[in-house]
Amino acid sequence: MAGPVLIAPDKFKGSLTAPGVVEAVAAGIRRERPDVEIREVPVADGGDGTVQAAVAGGFRRLPVQATGPVGDPVDAWIAVRERTAVVELAAVSGLVLLDFDEPAPLAASSEGTGEAIRAALDAGARTVVLGIGGSACTDGGAGMLTVLGARVLDAAGNPVPPGGGPLVNAAELDLSGLDPRLADTEVVLASDVDNPLLGERGAARVYGPQKGADADQVERLEAALTAWEGAVRAATGRDVAAEPGAGAAGGVGFAVLAALGGRMRPGAEVVLEIAGFEEQLAGAGLVVTGEGSLDEQTLHGKGPAAVAGRAAAASVPAVAVAGRNLLSAERAEQAGLRAVYALSDVEPDADRCMREAGALLTGLGEQLARDWL
């Protein structure tokens, strides 16, 4: 193999960030082949790690103080380059910000996401990429729109409180006060979620339980989102509840599509663009990608599949590292992966794989260097 090695993995959830995976694999390769040039492009699919990927691609970090999903202040970052900003919903409205034992399925709000978008506008952005994975809220994006100047009113003309549960009383969406800068701003919904807003595949029934909602709360959220959909459709004239991505992030996707005129794109593809992947791929001799668990879900819009697909199109061999690999050799090859190196193949203790992922990945980096370099 001739040419640089391009390392472009997603995170190992619960163990290492994407930059941490890059660092560990690069250390192993350098032990075997200190002469080989290594290019580093940590990636994401629109969830947590999206801002990190943008910063690695040359964006600058801008601090933002926002309102967390249940009202607590949150210190977070957005990424800005020229007139483009990257906002990560998980950092301000994410499930990771809540106590594991105290989820808030009815009360969690997307207000912080609106504040992060407003900060992007203040920084001069006229394209906002909204990475939308990992949300705590099922409020249809109402909190986000309220922060951006809209008003959500009940039948008596009173403001509807934040959260998904209270939306059952939503009767009117007043967009007259919406931040005028949004009219000249492109909002890109970076997501690998194609669920609609309502129904059996909708935001409440599919993702509500993941956010702590019991069966009764799921039905309450479904009723609330149904009321909200009617108010938004009346205000915007847009019937987008059934569109792919409307159910993303508890319906934040719906609000972006209907009220902000946004468009949805596959999250991994957007992140590869903002991270400068194609530029780094040019001339590369080997691509190393991966994530914590390689499985069938990986092949449906996740970062490693996007990386492997682009590498294959450029006739550059690609291999993957993973915590565990649930793909058959045939499925991995169909995805463009020549080989998969999994921590579970060298260390059967799953807890140790999580605790010592960095050191074990360095060992895998040595092995793949011996095999491919």
Report on the structure:
By secondary structure, the protein is an alpha/beta fold. It folds into 2 domains: 5-42 and 281-372, 3-Layer(aba) Sandwich (Rossmann fold), CATH 3.40.50; 50-268, Alpha-Beta Complex (Glycerate kinase, domain 2). 36% of the residues lie in helices and 19% in strands. It contains 15 helices and 13 strands. The chain has helices at 18-32, 50-56, 89-93, 111-122, 142-147, 203-207, 215-236, 252-259, 267-274, 277-281, 303-313, 329-334, 343-346, 350-355, 357-372, and strands spanning 5-7, 38-40, 60-67, 73-81, 84-88, 127-131, 151-153, 172-174, 186-191, 263-266, 286-294, 318-325, 339-342. It has a 6-stranded mixed sheet, with helices on both faces. The longest helix has 22 residues, at 215-236. It is elongated, with a radius of gyration of 21 Å. The mean pLDDT is 95.
Total count of helical runs of at least 4 residues: 15
Q: What is the terminal separation in angstroms?
A: 6 Å
CATH architecture label of the largest domain: Alpha-Beta Complex
The low-pLDDT segments are none
CATH overall fold name of the largest domain: Glycerate kinase, domain 2
Average pLDDT, rounded to a whole number, is: 95
**How many strands, what sense, and barrel or not for the largest sheet?**
6 strands, mixed
Quickly count the domains: 2
CATH class of the largest domain: Alpha Beta
What is the molecular shape? elongated
- Give the ordered list of helices and strands: EHEHEEEHHEHEEEHHHEHHEHEHEHHH
The CATH fourth-level homologous superfamily of the largest domain: Glycerate kinase, domain 2
The total of beta strands comes to 13
Helix content: 25-40%
Q: What integer value in Å does the Rg equal? A: 21 Å
Structural class, by secondary structure, is alpha/beta
Protein name: Glycerate kinase
Family: Belongs to the glycerate kinase type-1 family.
InterPro entries: Glyc_kinase_flavodox-like_fold, Glycerate_kinase, Glycerate_kinase_RE-like, Glycerate_kinase_sf
GO molecular function: glycerate kinase activity
